Amino acid sequence: MCLFWNKFICSRQLFTGYKAQGVSKKRKMKLMLGPPLFHLLLSCATQTLGVRIDAVPAVNDEGVITTELEKTVSLVCHHEGGHETEEELMWLRNDAAVSLKEGNTMGSSQVCVTPIYEDHGATFTCHLKKNATISASVTLDVTFPPQLSGSEEVTLEEEDALVLSCDIWANPQVSPVSWKLNGSTVDLVEGGFIMTNDGSTSQLTTSSVDRSLHQGTYQCSVNSTKYGQYNKVFYVTVTDKTIKFPLMPIIAGLVVVFLTALLAIASRWKKIRQCCK
Questions:
Q1: pLDDT at position 44, please?
Q2: Running along the chain, 277 residues long, what does each successive block of 10 average in pLDDT?
Q3: I need a surface site. Which of 178, 202, 219, 230 has the fewest CB within 10 A?
């Protein structure tokens, strides 16, 4: 429309050059073209209305900012409207309003974000307070490694269930998890293991441990294309199975026996006193 307007201006200038045509014809032509000119100008002005978000780090062509945990992201929203008065701006994080300090809403507004895990995939939107349809948005792509390190000691008895868990949640996602026992890949069939992976946690489990099969050093390993390799070690010790007495029933039985004996003594107290004389 705006290109058409430029062409129209040129043609109108050409039109005014023909002085031989009558004044009444010019006035008639101006009256016919008046309303379209107004709407055309309004259309061109409307196209310039809007808001723009500048960011550090920069926004890619898909409206995404790639950053890392705890690295500050600066977002600055500008009102682009050509109005003489500044428009008030608002920020949303997903659907929740962002609290802004006084003076940080008129004409331009800045928000600084220090990303945490929950900010991965969050969308920040800036819009005019009086018209939420005039807006701009960016989405955070927060990268982070898996929380996988250190070692853990696990002690359990024969025939107990064994559950080993590794936290593999990361962005970008890590490669398939590798489990090893004493330096060799875990034999799922021989050890009766079940290995599960839901994208956040990888588990190696067996319902009944046998010292000859399951005692040893376990290691889970993953590889991140961005952060490298991560490992966690488990030292599993299997002890003899102990006989576990039902402590509470035993205590209850002893209490019953004691009360019964006490009642028996009380009922025969007179005879007992006579025998003791």
A1: 37
A2: 36 38 42 41 45 94 95 94 73 95 92 95 95 95 95 96 96 93 95 94 96 96 95 97 72 78 71 62
A3: 178
Reference 113, options 72, 142, 85; nearest CA is 72
How close are the terminal C-alpha atoms of the chain, in Å?
126
Q: Which of 129, 123, 152, 115 is nearest to 51 (CA)?
A: 129
Chain centre distance of CA 250: 51
Q: At what angle do helices 247-267 and 269-276 cross, to 10 degrees?
A: 70
Cα separations in angstroms, 252 against 104, 245, 247, 255: 70, 13, 9, 5
Cα separation, 22 vs 270, in Å, equals 145
210 neighbors 254 (Cβ within 8 angstroms): no
Q: What was the pLDDT predicted at 269? A: 63
- Return the structure tokens found at 228: 């490298």
* pLDDT of 245: 59
